[in-house]
Amino acid sequence: MNVHPPERLRPDLSLISDWIPPQTHILDLGCGEGALLAYLHEERGVTGYGLEIDEDEIAAAVARGVNVIQGDVDDGLQQFATGSFDFVVMTQALQALQRPDLAIGEMLRVGRTAIVTFPNFGHWMARIDVLGGRMPRTRTMPDNWYDSDNIHLCTVRDFETLCQDNGWRITRRNLLNHDHQDGWLQRFSPNLFTEIAVYMLESEQRRI
Amino acid sequence: MSKPHFGNASVGIVTPEILHFDQPIRLECGRQLNQFDLAVETYGTLNADRSNAVLVCHALSGDHHAAGYHSAEDRKPGWWDSCIGPGKPIDTNRLFVVSLNNLGGCAGSSGPASINPETGSYWGSDFPMVTVRDWVRAQAMLADRLGIERWAACVGGSLGGMQVMQWAIDEPDRVGHAVIIAATPKLSAQNIAFNEIARQAIFSDPDFHSGRYLDKGVTPERGLRLARMLGHITYLSDEAMREKFGRMRRSDILGYDFDVEFEVESYLRYQGQQFVSRFDANTYLLMTKALDYFDPAAEYGGDLAAAMERVQCRSLVIAFEADWRFSPERSREIVHALVAARKPVAYVSVPSSLGHDDFLMPIPYYHRVLGDYLARVARQHGS
Which of B177, B345, B348, B363 to mutate to test binding with chain A, by most A CBs within 10 Å of its CB? Predict the structure, then answer.
């Protein structure tokens, strides 16, 4: 497997990689060309699989020796047994799913812990666009409303409400600006200044 | 090897070899062959540490002639020439490819159409029933003969993919990578039903003579032709047949008789006729039965994941969306079993239109994935 030094990993992936302990077994939903899986395997002895639908990404993942499985998260994760992974990761894909809530539920069924990242619709730049009467086009949401894959955008507050309603415990949270830094602005007003949100979740039911 | 007029992407002219084995092979049916022959072709060069060998396993009607031409006059290359050759997905510049005709075949290996050395007459229906596991055993003996301790990869489509799966389970130490294409972990009732009709077609031919037709100097051509026509329908998708033939007729005027009128009738008759000139009916019976019997999970209480626990190699599983004979769903069963056993696997479902036969076609996405995967395998062995 190719070695990718941490600095070459996409910043949000780099952050997530620090949350995943060595020798664990993970599932990466929407794994792209498998950069995270390849890095974690090489550096931490992490094993697991990636799910992906894009042909070019799949071909690239196969070429670098990643365990990529062609499949659509929207079709569900029935093929994976309950509790078969330590971590289930989904980066920047939640907002493009048919039913993000069902997907997270499935992630917490097949895995002990879920890690999700998404662009925050509540960021002040998005709000300004909406106040101006337009759908937002920002650095983290660059597409037009009609050609965007993002069909279920949410804010940090929306997301935390969803977690609460479903009994998902937020065990870790990292709210970042576009440069993937967390600063005083994000801490001061998370929903206004977060551009990319990263959450670690566990299912409360299983704890009991 | 001189090959100017076949182009640079061909392995050129190849010469099959018949290898004789004097060791007995015990078969799953309980019988034993005291000696046997295997027809073999190889392409490319075995490296110094004998680590770059790839086994190609053939499907129902295939044989050892997978690539290249037998003579300068040969019009058609081997059955998987689109995939095997210099710079092709199974790159003979880097890999040493071994292709054989399986036991029970009719292209030079010991089978019903060969002579039983103990009686001096045709084996015919006396040839023992062979299984996928028996083939793997014979292929392992072939590997020993060639001095190949471990295959860099085993590759096969359809029934060939099932042999690859069996290799990974039965001989985990001898397989570096398993490439399982358009296969299934076991046949469905529908699959078996089609095979049974094919067999009944052969049995019902008056020239079949309980399988002893070669002794009588005849062949059950009508039965075998029907079997092949039926098979062909299952190799093509409804869409492909519609696109290729539609309701096209050879003449605008309806004949009001049972001569060939629709193009699809003509196609099936042609395919059937081509087949009977090169294939043996008893071999067809054996191959369909080997398909029906294949079920590696059976001895693990039907738990395929338990069978896959034995696997030690990486796997690449490829399916084709238009394939309804062994649909992508069947390939996903293989993948899920490997995932449940925590074995490394990649799975690709190729958008396609032809049907089961897509695995023989040079579909760009398919060949890109297969080529990139095997290029990594070749690099692992320094070629």
Answer: B348
